[in-house]
Amino acid sequence: xxxxxxxxxxxxxxxxxxxxxxxxxxxxxxxxxxxxxxxxxxxxxxxxxxxxxxxxxxxxxxxxxxxxxxxxxxxxxxxxxxxxxxxxxxxxxxxxxxxxxxxxxxxxxxxxxxx
Length: 115
Description:
By secondary structure, the protein is mainly alpha-helical. Helices cover 55% and strands 11% of the residues. A 3-stranded antiparallel beta sheet has the order 2-1-5. A two-stranded antiparallel ribbon has the order 3-4. Pfam families: SWIB.
């Protein structure tokens, strides 16, 4: 009985160390801003829409969805379809309607790649 309690105590110690190291790894990778979290310069149209000259792809997508939901621009009959107002048309290539899954594709050209 004593051996199993010692074994579990050691396992708990290893789990605590693993959790601490994975948490520090996650925070370090987010601090670098790589991939989708990388802050990039955006086009003037998207910058005007977001109110910032730089943004990450995830922030731009989140703010776009916040705008869509706040202004109730989803088609009530088909929630996957977005009905673009004049402000959204400036960033979505002048389209009147956009599919939910097209948004990231249409936002992509607005991010200026730096060398």
